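Hi F.,

I've been meaning to write this up properly since the lab meeting, where we talked about keeping a consistent format for the predictions we share between groups. The idea is simple: the sequence comes first, exactly as it goes in, then the structure tokens exactly as they come out, then a line or two of notes. No screenshots and no reformatting. I'm using this chain as the first example so we have something concrete to point to.
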Amino acid sequence: MIHQSINQYLEPCFTKYHSNTAILYPEENLSFRYDEMREQIHRYARSLCSWGVKRNDHVAIILPTSPDWIFLFLAITLIGAVPVSLNDSDLQNEMEFKLNHSDTNYLFTTEAIYTNIISVCKIEKLKGIVILPIFHSSKHENVFSFEKFQSMYSDTSTEALAAVIAQTKYDDILNIQYTSGTTGLPKAVTSIHYSVLNNILVFLRNFHYTEQDKIVAALPLYHVMGCLFTGILTFLSGGCLVLISHFHTKEVLNIIQTESCTSFHGVPTMFRFMLNRCSDYNISSLTKCMIAGDYCGPSLIDAIHKELKIDHPFPCYGQSEGIGITQALLTDSINKIKYTVGKAVDQVIIKIIDDSGQELPHNQVGEIIAYIPYHMLGYYKDPDATRKTLHNDWLYTGDLGYLDDDNYLVLKGRKKEIIVRGGENISPVEIENVIRTYEPVENVAVIGISDSLMGQEIAAYITISPKHTLVTEEMKESLDQYLCEHLPKYKRPKFVYFIDHFPMTTSGKIQKHKLIQLQPIQTDKGEII
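Output, unedited:
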């Protein structure tokens, strides 16, 4: 285990790979070598010191993906302050809650977000705001332009910066990261440098990335997989990070083709969109991909392998609270990759337990708990929630699954998502996997809805592939027959709803708790609607 901060560990990388391209930002035709990246980070760190930012201050970043997002993040951590990584798509009430809950002292954001949201928020501990990329005027002296911020570096000498850097430690808080909120109000996960660095290094060793790799970062940088498990992971390997500000299928495929990218990190939804368009592009340079953030299912892995022709799809499993818990390996067969999310990474132990806390044998479904040296420090200002999730370094994930005979983890869904129909416990994931194999289906989500007789009934929400422009009666009847052939009666959805799109988090997860709002009027007969 490495006892260093991420910035300390990165320093030799800046020297070793100094002339390599560290970041490509195609949409603005920008690129930065490793030595240029280090210079930018140190300049921004000096400006932060000149602005008055001190060790342990909380500095929020509410910006779209760009090279400056990364430079600011690493400049903040370099001086021992704490980045608060926030979603730039949040609405006013969400931003105001997070900025106050996180005790944000300083803030970087855009003029649009400042004008429309921040200016009308009451943020108690906020001392100053910097507006990117430009800002014309403000009635408040503590709100100024990024250009002015950049010019402030000269007020702090390199010697003064070095003295500040010397105070940083491996067990400093690296980041405050809000959970995506698919199951309720977001919680603020705090992680330390030591945990995140060592976890990233484990993944890097298993992926075998080198300085020859070009890795596409399509997820937002405020997402743990965006900044840390794509950005920092790339820099530790000496490779090139290809930044995408927003995921648009055609643009992403064109960038992969033009830049000869070798790996893509994304969530399952992104891969489904790419599969619909991949035949129009030459993306043969892609040899690896990391898939995380949501469950894949065997049909998607199979399509990635066969249609995207990626030899090594890497499904991973983790949470903001435990970061990376499992990953597939280069030596794994495609069959093993299709049906599991890999093995526990180095230093991690996985157990499956029943409701009484007793460990279950292989191939029996229960709650996944993991002994993780890389786990979060805790939920910020929420000790009760922390105690419920962490017990003596064991993380209680709230997810269901089992270990197969080879100790590979198979996911079966969220514990709270299990449908109890007439006393039978039913996994939504199992039903979703069957429905996804029906050719017209693009994506599906299964939930339980209240029923006075059965307790819960099963409802499936389906989007169809772009190849099928209309939901026909013939298609409905065919799906009904397909489900009869592939699912036992008690697992068949009573209600099937065809919808245009799913409510999603910005990190690509389906917000199942919002599906009930899309539900059409039910019929007593349980017809396919």
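Notes:
The two ends are 55 Å apart (CA to CA).
Residues 521-529 have pLDDT under 50 and may be disordered.

If this format works for you, I'll send the rest the same way.

G.
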